[in-house]
Amino acid sequence: LSSYLSGATPNDGLPQIRWHQTADFGYVPNLRMPNTFMAVAMDLCDRNSPFGSTHPRDKQTVAYRLHLGARAVAYGAKLTFQGPLPQKIELLGDMGLLNLTYSQPIQVQRHNKIFEISCCSDHQCKWLPAPMDTFSAQTLALNVKSCRDSLAAVRYAWTAWPCEYKQCPLYHPTSALPAPPFTAFITNQIPGYRSKVAK
């Protein structure tokens, strides 16, 4: 889905639709949806589209991303058809960082408040911005010092309007495919613990 302009109030509805489109895995193909693929369009927002912001006029980019997935999944072509997702999360509590290691190379185009962390105390959680800190060709560190309690989860692009047209922070460097939105639970608070993305 493309971005949705619904006014000034935050709305998790569209990201939830994006999430459920993947059977709650955050990526496809997966165990419930084999032989499928996802063409991400959340960075193709179109504020002035006469058909509504979820229907961008840039159909060429949508078609290009769809054709990449079809070639890879249906025809077995060896090519990159989906943007990078983190495959490992490492909490560096003593440094106040959350380190994300991606399954593919990443290109960081800009820094903004697109990452959030769930900070919990006494069974009450709230989402806080997690600024991007350092990054390399395949890793990205988030500053999580704003959470002085228990860090429960991290999410990326979890808004109805995460970025402007082709201006999301993370892309694959050669294919120019955007990193998909995700939510990952952090199940162990031991500093340095490595966890796979759970959701």
Overview of this structure, please?
This protein has 199 residues and is α+β, with helices and mostly antiparallel strands. The protein has 2 domains: 12-75, no CATH class; 86-185. The chain contains 2 helices and 11 strands. The chain has a 5-stranded antiparallel beta sheet, with no helix packed on it. The longest helix has 15 residues, at 59-73. The two termini are 19 Å apart. Mean pLDDT is 85; it is low at 189-199.
Mean pLDDT: 85
Kindly report how far apart the N and C termini lie: 19 Å
Shape verdict: globular
**How many strands, what sense, and barrel or not for the largest sheet?**
5 strands, antiparallel
Q: Poorly predicted ranges (pLDDT <50, ≥5 residues)?
A: 189-199
Order of helices and strands: HHEEEEEEEEEEE
Protein name: Sialate O-acetylesterase domain-containing protein
Organism: Balaenoptera physalus
GO molecular function: sialate O-acetylesterase activity
Structure described in brief:
With 199 residues, the protein is of the alpha+beta class. The chain has helices spanning 13-20, 59-73, and strands at 86-92, 97-102, 107-108, 115-121, 124-129, 132-135, 139-143, 150-156, 170-171, 182-185, 194-195.
Q: How is the topology of this model organized?
A:
Elements lengths: L12 H8 L38 H15 L12 E7 L4 E6 L4 E2 L6 E7 L2 E6 L2 E4 L3 E5 L6 E7 L13 E2 L10 E4 L8 E2 L4
Antiparallel strand pairs: 1-2, 1-11, 2-7, 3-9, 4-5, 4-8, 6-7, 8-10
Main attributes of the structure:
alpha+beta; 5-stranded antiparallel β-sheet; 11 strands; disordered C terminus; SIAE; 199 residues; 2 domains; sialate O-acetylesterase activity
